[in-house]
Amino acid sequence: MRGKNIIIGICGGIAAYKTPQLVRLLKKRGANVKIALTEGGSRFVSELALATVSGEQVYRTIFPPTDVRNTDYTSHISLGEWADALVIAPATAHTLAKLCAGLCDDMLTTCFITLRPGKPVLIFPSMDGQMYLSPSVQRNIKTLSSQGCTLFSPDNGELASGQCGFGRMPEPESILTSLDDAFLAMAQHSPLSGKSVVITAGPTREKIDGVRFISNYSSGKMGFAIARAAAKRGASVTLITGPVHLETPPGIERLDVESAAEMYATAQGFFQNCNLFISAAAVSDYRPAAPQEGKMKKEAEEFELALVKNPDILAEFGAQKSTGQLAIGFALETQSGLDNARKKLVSKNLDLIAFNFFDHKTAGFDVDTNILTLIQRNGITTELPQLTKEDAAGKLLDAIEELLPENRQ
To answer: Which residue ranges form the domains of the chain, and what is each CATH number?
Structure first.
């Protein structure tokens, strides 16, 4: 659960009093939680309580305030992009009907529409037993199930009406287990589940002396996004990274290096046994031939620095990879460089290369978005629009999954 992004939808049922405890359990497990609260839900649990336990603002209306700086005016879209899962607990008969009809007049119903395909939707209806068994509610449940949502039958027990019977929302611990199961099933369903994936990320530093080095502007964000996405699909991920200021994605093994030679030496140990090698690092092509100890003094008017070539990590893997192993690379260019990317694809014996447009603003180093063109060895080319690096990583992995040996047959 650590690192997962969860939207909790809360509707207007008495069982809403249980939901803050669910949020607390998720937070203790390391999940990021945001709340979509309906008008009815706000009658049973306060925004203040939910904001306190989640550590986030509570979302209700799709219309944000216009007098607040740095407001996300399209949060009804960005929340759906952000989330790894949507859990609606409790779900009322009214909200079930709105979801079936495709209505989106509040943040909860809009997040249901904008949630990205393939993300789990867990719905926990809670209401009087006779309401739940009514033909209209049962029809809506069947419709939502046919759309890929997972709906859970209510428990038996004491109801708000004073009766004892069918209609109670499951306890928060049970809901948490169901969400665990949903993520596990999703990971096992992915073609990458159980695969050994090695990813290089970030820049390298090549020492000139004890305090100076040659490097580049790579932030490591693209490689880390790929590692995070691969781990979510159930892969066993090893991330070999140069010096970056990024948190380690959940569920991966991180190995920190500094120079291209160190990255090469570390990566070599995985060449033979990994299923997939993705080179997203910006490895320095050259290093100083004779780095000096300590700090060089500024004495001469001119200074010549001799450079020698660094090992090409991805080319080395491509040259020795065996049947069933895949090699994936990036080609960063400031101009139209598709031809250069295709040459790298062939010369390094890659299965796919991502031509990475670089403009310092919307794509490339140290920004949160990217523009990729995916080129397969058979010539199939897919141009992606400007995407967040998280979404671009997902599209890249989608293309890689199609190249896995078991999917080629």
So the answer is: 5-159+167-189 (3.40.50.1950), 196-292+304-408 (3.40.50.10300)
